[in-house]
Design a protein that fits this description.
Elements: E1 6-12, H1 14-18, E2 26-32, E3 35-40, E4 44-54, E5 60-71, E6 78-84, E7 89-94, E8 97-102, E9 114-116, E10 118-123, E11 135-141, E12 146-152, E13 157-164, E14 171-175, E15 178-182, E16 186-191, E17 197-202, E18 212-216, E19 219-223, E20 228-233, E21 243-244, E22 251-255, E23 258-262, E24 266-271, E25 277-282, E26 288-292, E27 295-299, E28 304-309, H2 312-321, H3 325-334, H4 341-345
Antiparallel strand pairs: 1-28, 2-3, 3-4, 4-5, 6-7, 7-8, 8-9, 10-11, 11-12, 12-13, 14-15, 15-16, 16-17, 18-19, 19-20, 20-21, 22-23, 23-24, 24-25, 26-27, 27-28
Helix pairs in contact: 2-3
Subcellular location: Cytoplasm
GO cellular component, one term: cytoplasm
Protein name: TGFA1 protein
Length: 346
Amino acid sequence: MSVKAFKLVSAVEREMLMGDKNYINIECIECCGKNLYIGTNDCFIYHFLLDEKVSTAGKITFAATKQLHKYLGLKKPVSELKAASALMRLLVLCDNTITLVNMINLEPVPTGARIKGAVTFTLNENPVSGDPFCVEVCIISVKRRTIQMFMVFEDRVQIVKEVFTPEQPCAVAVDGYYLCLALTTQYIILNYNTGVSQDLFPYCSDEKRPIVKRIGRQEFLLAGPGGLGMFATVDGISQRAPVHWSENVIGAALCFPYVVALDDEFITVHSMLDQQQKQTLPFKEGHILQDFEGKVIVATNKGVYILVPLPLEKQIQDLLASHRVEEALVLAKGARRNIPKEKFQV
């Protein structure tokens, strides 16, 4: 049974990005407030301002205004972008090197500070340093079976820790001192401060792409065996029942109370409250699905779209109108913290 939980709205049309240059592909995206950054296969970064407009009928549209684009000077794709808004910096991974650039003019920092030898990287959203003018960055190193932790400041970087893993890591998410890692044959939790590690469950990274995503304090979402979306805490236990995905999920995102997943044909929406699949949106050629401060964005090689959640009150009303009282109650109770008090009472 379906619920209309999200609407798919176009944000950046292909013409705005590439004009008639068909060879340009979107490799990665980052969104921070109204700032949308796109990294492409021909080594450019594009900066757009996203303006959300609501019509009198309540229809939401997005107007993207291009600010500037910048060529990074290499013949390699821009593979990852992460914003560190407190530092006004954008961290850019290209050709195994993370460069710090200014969020507004996209110029590299004058000191030339960079992190070399990174396969992929992520930021620690639950940092341990306590310094507001620093972000903690975890990289999977080009060195075999090695993870490195860095502190990144406005114009310098400093290595904090190097950790060796039992097998080659291929994906990582961080929470405090805890790393949730997809290795070649299994997922593990590793405390990089104490070195203590814990096996979660087996997984074959050769057969499909692992997904490791921090979804809250000390909790991660993983693509498990048999097409299951599994939840795991840093203690190695699961406090929620898994959701049933398709076998070939490419990306996952959280927009409470929903888990959104992307495969090669569809975007699927599952409720974390009763694990049921609530919505399916046809979406061909998607290769990126990420959430940024509650905004869920999907992209093909040529365009960027936003999944706009419908107000929870409206979803509850729709369920009641179709006599699905039990589901409406589950949603109302589970999403209570996201609904204004007087509306919840009604």
